[in-house]
Amino acid sequence: MREVAFCFGRVTLYWDTLLIALACAAGFLALWGTYGANGGKKRAFWLLVPLGLVLSLAVARTIFWYCHSEQFSSLAAALVPGSSGGFCLSGVVIGFVLAALLLRLAGLEKDTALLLDCASPALALCLALVRLSSLFSGGCRGKVPITDPRFCRLPFAAAAPGGGEYRFASFFVGALLFLVLFAVLTLLFVRRWGRRGDVFLAFLVLYSAVELVIDSTRNDASYFTFNAFISVAQILGAAAMLGVLVVFSRRSIRSGGPKLHRVLCWVAWFLGAAIAGVSEYLVQRHGNWQLGCYTLMTIGALILVFATFAVYRPVCGEKTE
C-alpha cells in the first residue's frame, strides 16, 4: 500500500513518488555543485540530467522485472511510467555510469573519472532519499515482526502505511548510512583523495558494503532467477568490491608496493567475504539468530572495506596514473 499525496482528477500522486523526484533533483543539484566548481561543461551536464535519469530508471526497473517477471505481462509493461512494482537500487548506479560513458563516447566529456568523482557524493545523497521513500510504500522492511513496544518506532522499526505489524526499518537505517556516505565522500572529494576516479571507487566500496547488510534484512529483496540464496544487491555489491580490490592491487604492483602487504589484504578480504557468507547462510536457516548474524555480517562487511582500502594505502598518495 502506498500513501496518496494529491489527487488531481484521474491523476494520483503518491508521497514515495514525490520523494523519489526530490531525490533526483537533489542529486543533480549536488552534482552540479561539485562538477561545475571543477570546470564541468554545462552542455555535458544538461545532457547528463535526462540521460542519467532515463537510464537509471530503465536499468533499475529492468533488473526488478527480471527478478519478478511474474508481476508483469512483459518488459515493456514494466517500463511504462506509472506501472506498479518496485526497482533495484543497484540499477540506479549502473544506469548513471552508463550515461557518463555515453557522454564520453559522444566526445562531450572525456574526463569520465572527474565526472564520476563529482557524482559520488550526489549519488549517495540521491540514494538516501530514494531509500527513505519506502516509508510511504511499505517496502524495504525486515523479515521478522517486532513486538517489543520500546522498538516499535524509528529508527528501529516501522509499520506499513495504513497500519499493521512493525518490522525492522531497513529503509531508514539504509538512508541514514547513505547520508553518512554522502558526508564521507564529500570530505574525500574536497581533500582530493587519491587519483582521478578514486572517490567513485570509494563510493562503490562503501555503497556495496551498506547494501550487503541492509539488503539481507529485507523481506522483499530481489533475487536472480538462477539463485535464490544471495540477493541481486549482494551479488553486485560483492562483485563491485572485488573489482575495486583488483584495481587497487594492480596499482600497488605497478608502484612497487610490498607484496606481503597485498597478500595479507587479500586474505583478510576473503575472510570478510566468508564471514558475510556464513552469516547470510545462518540467518536464513535460523530466523531467531538475526541479531547475532547481522552483527557478524556487519563485521564481515567492515573487514571487506578495510581490506580493500588497506591494499591501496601504501601508494594512495601517488597522483600519476
Describe it:
With 321 residues, the protein is mainly alpha-helical. It has helices at residues 15-35, 42-67, 75-79, 89-105, 112-132, 170-190, 198-217, 232-254, 259-285, 290-310, and strands at 4-8, 11-14, 145-146, 157-159, 166-168. A hairpin with a 6-residue loop joins strand 4 (157-159) and strand 5. It is globular and about 60 Å long.
Note the run of SSEs as H and E.
Answer: EEHHHHHEEEHHHHH
Structural class: mainly alpha
From the spread of the alpha carbons, the general shape counts as globular
Rg result? 20 Å
Share of residues in helices: 55-70%
Provide the low-confidence segments as ranges.
Answer: none
Note the gap between the termini.
51 Å
Average pLDDT taken over every residue: 90
The description of the largest β-sheet is: 3 strands, antiparallel
| Number of H/I helices | 10
- Portion of residues in beta strands equals 5-15%
Using DSSP, what is the number of strands?
Answer: 5
| Adjacency order of strands in the biggest sheet | 3-5-4
